[in-house]
Amino acid sequence: MALIQCDYYSETLGLSCSMNVILPQQTFSQIGMGGKTRGGKHPVLYLLHGLSDDHSIWLRRTSIERYAAELGLAVVMPAVHRSFYMDMEQGGRYWTFISEELPAIARSFFPLSEAREDNFAAGLSMGGYGAFKLGLRCPDKFAAAASLSGALDPAVITDRLHGFDREFALIFGSADKIRGSDNDLFHLAQLVAEGGGTVPKLYQCCGTEDFLYEDNVRFRDNAQGLGLPLTYEEEPGDHEWGYWDDKIRRVLKWLPLRSK
Fold it and tell me: Is residue 260 part of a domain?
């Protein structure tokens, strides 16, 4: 596979940004790892980081390059700082960036498929929220979304993260502005379920010792009650990279990749 550190300019954010990109490569003589391509433009996974991380973290903490190699899958890992993938109350328009500008920029640089059935999102913690938000707000663009230990209810995140109150106000404004809005995953799930349109596949996992476990159970119960196509898994585990390294392999096996 090809591994690319890509530095570029975002018109939406008005600043220079970075992303790491893994591109499929057909290989036959690599020792310990094979690589494949599918022909034509590549299916792509937008893999999102958590609150304290950046575009490099999935490469540093997991073997995502090795895991994706045999699938012929491109992986785009952008940096969004501590934005919660939001058009922030006081800050950058990171939702517009991640949902509109980033895919367009990535496709202009690399041979990535525009077809819905070839586009997926996944992320951990804050990135789990971002991935489900992409899937539920843009079901016409993403065939599947996966959340690993997701911060799925930001309206209560200050109860989970000590000292986050001031930063929360800069990002969201107030909890009242989240409830029932396009930033509320519970509300979005209901809209998708009742809309009669295209519904993305969803995968959700969380360790039972994770500080976000209660919120994940509430989202699971809500999504299942709405009849959404949710695959849910839980097992002993905490909010840490050993768990996510294991579960991202599960996500890659679960993705509805087209056979080619």
Answer: no
Cβ distance 2 to 22 under 8 Å? yes
Of 73, 160, 164, 157, the C-alpha closest to 119 is: 73
Q: Does 259 fall in a domain?
A: no
Q: Write out the chain's pLDDT in tens, 260 residues.
A: 899 999 999 999 999 999 999 999 988 888 888 888 888 899 999 999 999 999 999 999 999 999 999 999 999 999 999 999 999 999 999 999 999 999 999 999 999 999 999 999 999 999 999 999 999 999 999 999 999 999 999 999 998 888 899 999 999 999 999 999 999 999 999 999 999 899 999 999 999 999 999 999 999 999 999 999 999 999 999 999 999 999 999 999 999 998 85
With tokens 């993305």, the residue in question is 200
Number of domains in the chain: 1
Which residues form the domain of 87? Answer: 2-254
For residue 30, what are the contacts with CB-CB under 8 A and spacing of at least 6?
none
In a domain, 223, yes or no: yes
Q: What is the pTM assigned to this prediction? A: 0.97
